[in-house]
Amino acid sequence: MSKLILSSELLNSLVDGRTPSKDDAYHIYQDAEMDPTDLYKVSQFLRTKNKGTRVTYSRKVFFNLINLCRDTCSYCTYKSEPGQAKVSMLSKNDIISLANVAKKQNCTEALFVTGERPEQKYQEARTWLKENGFSSTIEYLVEASEIALEAGLFPHTNAGNLTKDEMRQLKDTNVSLGLMLENSSERLSEEGMPHQFAPSKNPKARIKVLQNAGELKIPMTTGLLVGIGESPHELIDSIYAIKEIHDKYQNIQEIILQNFQPKLDTPMKSSPTPQEKYFKTLVALTRIILPDMNIQIPPNLSPASYSSFLSAGINDWGGISPVTQDYVNPEFPWPRINDIDTNCTDAGFHLRARFPVYPEFFHMVNPDLVSKMSEISDSENLVSVEYAK
Ligand code: SF4
User: Fold this and answer.
1) CATH topology of domain 3-79+176-388
2) pTM over 0.90
3) Which residues line ligand 1 (CB under 6 A)?
């Protein structure tokens, strides 16, 4: 029996509701390298079975709190050093002004992003926090989230590895939190690898944060960075690592699959972006390993081909901002929401705006925040069509 036939049998069994083992997934990947057609068919089937033809996005504003970061990843240009641009903390007045602009544009998500614990490494951050009455960046994030909420936005914070107590505090104002696993392989932290100088990217530390969030019943966005020197098996193992957390805590609300893009002035400037076939195969494998998961690719990182990922099984485009740029990938502008809408319709799907928490995770959210969301939500816990216009 050839591997291709074996894989077809496997794929058929997945259509019938079987969960693939890790070895099954390795086999399916191997066969898809030759011809991914059957895999895409099954991943599309499973997406449609579990998610219908709806594709979602979150209309967001990006609050870039501070670009200083304790760690150094070989692919990152988000992190700055004192003396370069973008290293001062976004002030409370800046947050209020930007929140008001975003509210006028009917944004619903306030995305807060910072580098990893900047005050541990940089005097500039410590001084700003002290002068403004905060003992840590996270303490400031708690107040920043309250400001955004007051302005009518719903916070989602991505601030690196938070402690359980910090997440507990943020749960009062944040409808969900974010932490990319990136990859579950410790090999990527070895000498010469992209996470060598980023202890916070140690997969054990990240998995612990996602588990703590599970114990606190916090909906978490996580994801994988594809194309940073991992092997396909390491990527498949990473999908299973997320599955294990979700099977236990049921708190992973979405998986972002982000394709690495090389940036000038980084040690990985000559590394290629992953080939689209490899990236799509991993997207499709994520769908068959976690058939009812929300799976997202950022459309701005595949500007010429993002719509084609619908045929690999995705059902979400993530946060898109009509107000601010993608500060992590500033060279990749967001597509216009109207254009995404048109492309979805042309491919037989319909685009809907969601909150930064998916409808099926509302039960985990602070009831006060749910009540506030209900002012602009519809009966399916999505942003009402009228509000999202
Ligand atoms: S931890 Fe995040 S912000 Fe810090 S260097 Fe790595 S990718 Fe950049």
Assistant:
1) TIM Barrel (3.20.20)
2) yes
3) 69, 71-73, 76, 78-79, 115-116, 198, 200
